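Quick one:
INPUT:
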């Protein structure tokens, strides 16, 4: 599987994964978001954050919540900004209805509603690698981000 987002934050830091329905131009997306992250605040405090585009499909955002918690308003601001960036590029960055799995040509997307059918057809197998966009804590980048279907919550939930 591909690279992992390396950052300096605590393993318990909050993490968001936004997956794109189309290829992301990482440099352009990160450039557009740089002003937001430079000025992002929660209750008057600057949010210490980092972001990266991984595998051309995932925008990962991590925040250092060591001495404060990112509030609902700040999270709403992040989501609104990500939505706006996506809409400006004709992308859906807020899709939570499926996941990307690894194929020889790169990545392929499957909706959760189609998982069982593709598993029964043998398109998806226990040893299929996939990216778990449901992770929400920095340490999960090394424990759950790149997983096999047999080791994941997806198989238990959808079969």
């Amino acid at each position: 599987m591909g690279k992992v987002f390396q950052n300096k934050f605590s393993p318990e830091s909050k993490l968001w994964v936004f997956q794109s329905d189309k290829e992301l131009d990482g440099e352009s997306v990160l450039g557009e978001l740089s002003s937001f992250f430079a000025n992002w605040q929660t209750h008057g405090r600057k949010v210490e954050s980092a972001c990266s585009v991984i595998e051309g499909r995932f925008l990962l955002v991590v925040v250092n919540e060591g001495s404060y918690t990112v509030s609902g308003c700040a999270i709403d601001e992040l989501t609104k900004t990500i939505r706006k960036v996506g809409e400006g590029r004709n992308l859906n960055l807020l899709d939570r209805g499926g996941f990307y799995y690894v194929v020889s040509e790169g990545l392929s997307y499957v909706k959760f509603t189609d998982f069982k059918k593709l598993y029964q057809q043998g398109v998806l197998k226990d040893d299929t690698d996939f990216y778990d966009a449901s992770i929400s804590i920095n340490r999960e980048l090394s424990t759950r981000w790149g997983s096999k279907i047999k080791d994941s919550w997806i198989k238990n939930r959808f079969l």
